[in-house]
UniProtKB/TrEMBL annotation:
Highest rank taxon of the organism: Bacteria
Any single Pfam family the record assigns to this protein: HTH_AsnC-type
Keywords of the record: DNA-binding, Transcription, Transcription regulation
Protein name: Lrp/AsnC family transcriptional regulator
Record domain HTH asnC-type: where: 1-62
Organism: Fulvimarina uroteuthidis
Record-linked PANTHER family: LEUCINE-RESPONSIVE REGULATORY PROTEIN (PTHR30154), TRANSCRIPTIONAL REGULATOR AZLB (PTHR30154:SF34)
Amino acid sequence: MKDRELIEVLKQDGRISWTNAARTLGLSRIAVQKRVEALRASGRIVGFTVILDEPSDQHGSARAFLRIRFGRGNDCFRLSRRFGSDRIVEGLWAVTGDWDAVMLVNAPSLKIISDFRELIVASGGIDEIETEAVLDELRSRTPATTSLDFKATKERSDS
């Protein structure tokens, strides 16, 4: 079973029954249940959450930068595996300086960002998180393709 496919099904509906997930993936209920248990035990899935239909903040959405300092035994790759594919994560970067990583999040409300921040803290291995809410977007542009993205795209098109 491809874990990515299972995770995508769970991201669409975290409350889906094992039977319905199994039907979607063409697997047995027991296979799905055991795989989810293994993903939770390994730390790849750290929890399930509810996304509420709350009124948006003043400009329709809330954005924030989370500056993260890791504790012993944690790193950017682990953080990325656990939270990088969450729908509110717009970007995650390993950085130099006083912080280890910077994450850009975008959600319908600051409350959702706050809850997500607490989920990161609860996952363990985080010494400190500083949250900087974006008050006003003065200028933004679509992120440029990196040389690694270009190389991967070229390799796929060459095959």
